[in-house]
Amino acid sequence: MKKLSIVAIILASLAIVGEIFIYASPKEDSDEVQTRAIMHDYRVYAPVIPDTMTFCGERVPLETYYVRESLDNELIVNMYRQSSTVLYFKRATRYFPTIESILKKNNIPEDMKYLCVIESGLTNATSSANAQGFWQFISSSGKTYGLAIDDDVDMRNDLEASTEAACKYLRSLYNRFHSWTAAAAAYNCGENGLARRMASQNTNNYYDLRLNTETGRYVYRILAMKQIMQHPQQYGYFIRHCDTYPIIPTRTVTLSGQNVDLYQFAQKNNTSYKMLRTLNPWLQTDKLKNKANKSYQVKLPTDKGLLHKHLTSGKKDTRLITHI
């Protein structure tokens, strides 16, 4: 009995101590526990603002407080919009080589490739104003700069053709404003709109203009994307080469004739209709009426075995992308 009493006393004491501990400790869902967890496990950092920066070789006046703070705002937005920014890195390895070569051929500064990033995210997007493609041309502007747009085809959605058109447009804007920064702003708001604001405010300097919110942020968005994509680790992005999308190896086939059934065309060329439309997003329908009897060059995948080998060859490249 004495032993039982001692055991009972010990158990009772432990129960009392445990109850005291439970009541003394914060509950798992309490504000105190949550605050401790946030302080221990969660970190948010302000992005580093560069001391100096250029766009298309033109100096960005970061010594002006509202210029510096406007860039800071866009760096924060894009640094912490991780899902979109990661996708930009992934797509850039596939599409930047084509864009860069066309920009170079047309003597357009390479920095303009970042304009393409903020316009469409490097996709054939369609805006609420029905602008389309990587460079977001509206139909009238696309036709003005040489893009075929009809019921059969829409070359706004062809990367090579639309980049050539964008080069012509950017060159014309530069010739008018004598500044690539102003040309980029005009690409967004229209050249006449920008010219009116310059005249009314008596300045031709983008950074000194008071503009609508979208155009006022536009160049800073380009600058922020350039800074992040050229210094990814500095902004928390650790993207490996094997994480990105490789260039798709293709062959070119002539598509001609009238009322061509594209399902049959794909089958005859040993590919799927989906692959045909994916590699040629400028095709608008499943039957090419082609009333003018034009010839088109379409991209088709190379031999499936070679295609698979190409797409898997970079899987072990775990080096980090240091700039793009």
Description:
This protein is mainly α and 324 residues long. The protein has 3 domains: 2-41; 54-239, Lysozyme (Orthogonal Bundle), CATH 1.10.530; 250-301. It is 52% helix and 7% strand. It is built from 13 helices and 6 strands. It has helices spanning 2-24, 31-41, 65-79, 82-105, 113-120, 139-144, 159-177, 180-189, 191-201, 213-230, 262-268, 273-279, 304-312; strands spanning 54-55, 58-59, 250-256, 260-261, 287-288, 295-301. The strands form 3 sheets. Strands 1-2 form a two-stranded antiparallel sheet. A two-stranded antiparallel sheet has the order 3-6. A hairpin with a 2-residue loop joins strand 1 and strand 2 (58-59). The longest helix is centred in the N-terminal third of the chain and has 24 residues, at 82-105. The radius of gyration is 28 Å and the shape is globular. It starts with a helix and ends in a 12-residue tail after the last helix. The model is unreliable at 20-24 (pLDDT under 50).
